Amino acid sequence: MSWHTFFGHPKRESAALFDIGSGSVGGAYAVFEDGMPPRMVFSRRIGIENHEGESLEASTLRACALAANALTTEGPTVLRQIAGDARVTSIFVTLSSPWQKTSARTQTIEEKKPFVFTKSQMQAAMSAEKRDADWISTGEFVIGTFLNGYKVENPFGKKVTRVDMSILSSAISGKMRKGIEEIIRHAFHSHAGSVSAFIPVAYEVFRDLYPHEKEFMLIDVSSEATDVACVHEGVLVDAATAPTGIGSIARSVVGNTGIHAVGGDLVDPARTVKPTEEVKKAQDAWITSLRDTLTKMGESRSLPRTVFLLSNKDTREYLKKTLESDAFHPLWLSDEPLKILPVVPSHFTPLVKTIAESEGDVSLMILALSYAKTRESKGGK
User: Fold this and answer.
1) What letters, b where the CB count within 10 A reaches 16 and e where it falls short, cover 121-148?
2) Which of 115, 121, 242, 378 has CA 20 to 30 A from 273's CA?
3) CA atoms of 142 and 167, how far apart (whole Å)
4) Which among 219, 215, 7, 279 is positioned nearest to 96, based on CA atoms?
5) 8 A C-beta contact, residue 205 and residue 245
6) Cis bond leading into 98, ω under 30°?
7) pLDDT for 260-292, tens place per residue?
8) DSSP 96
9) Is 285 exposed, middle or buried (0-12, 13-18, 19+ CB in 10 A)?
């Protein structure tokens, strides 16, 4: 072991990052060095193409394999030029819906006679949740504890009759993880260091990036689903998934070759507006699905008025315009306009540098910032 690894980790290291959604798979090499922002030196994003008779899972894994192949065949030369060698220290993977589940629930302990609340009781309550055998937990933690109806930061050792715990948990598809592990093992001859749900990772990055925004929502619109996270007093208190995404609208556009947005309106790649009944039907289905999800989230607390919108660059303005429409406005019970911020790569500069053969990719930049913070917590500077 060299002197620079003795205290926890090397002064410089490289990681492979993979962002896996239902519309595309992004892969990147990032270099991390003490005292410097992460540097993304190589990136590729592969669109998911669904072949006839093929499941979305199979299409996604094929795109993942193509992204991994690009990193291992084209990326090492670039990585070596920047980092001095092509060795990868770790592989960090996140999955979005439909491959992830993030949810919040309330677990209650109540007795007729007063009892002393302990950490072991909390752990027992957390493990009491029934788990789907097809899903793998990626984290579960208590985000708020109420003793006899009052929120308490340090609840242990106090005598109470009722404890309400707000618990946030996330899980990923076990079948999908297995497929990803096989691809990574074949491409890198190594295992993934971490496979996580994307929404909790994104929440932590935005919480640190905007420390003064205590109330906000994250809306991540992918091809086949829309993930929503609600942050209250700086804490992720609720998360849900609307089971429709931008893909159904894209497929309804004449030509079926993709969509762009000009002035917030859907247009085909030739920039000719072509509203059709099929497009309108797909739009209405997405709006209804997301509105129902937000309505349910708003039952327990008011929805934050600041919204960070994550989506591909071609549809950001269209989605922003849709969220500002009358279809969603009544959910906030106020005439005050929403603060909807489509997230773009420039929001992360100078925190993440994109150099050499990398592009400004929002999701991969989020992963780079998350990895950097984890690295720093283990002893970085």
Assistant:
1) bbeebeeeeeeeeebbebeeeeebbbbe
2) 242
3) 4
4) 219
5) no
6) yes
7) 554 455 555 444 555 577 878 888 999 999 999
8) -
9) middle
Token duo for residue 40: 């993304």
Look at residue 301 and give its three-state secondary structure: coil
Tell me the sheet residues that pair with 103: 169
Question: What's the CA gap between 68 and 86, in Å, rounded?
Answer: 15
Q: What is the DSSP letter of 380?
A: -
Lookup result for tokens 């499941």: 55
Helix (H, G, I), strand (E, B) or coil at 338: coil
Host H or E run for residue 241: strand 235-242
Kindly tell me if the per-residue pLDDT of 330 is higher than 50: yes
> Two tokens at 331?
């959910």
Spatial neighbors of 237 by CB under 8 A, at least 6 apart, are 104, 143, 144, 166, 168, 230, 231, 301
For residue 64, how many other CB atoms are within 10 A of its CB?
Answer: 25
Q: How many CB atoms lie within 10 A of CB 254?
A: 13
Task: Count Cα neighbours of 61 within 13 Å in the Cβ-side half-sphere.
Answer: 17
Contact 223, 48 (CB under 8 A): yes
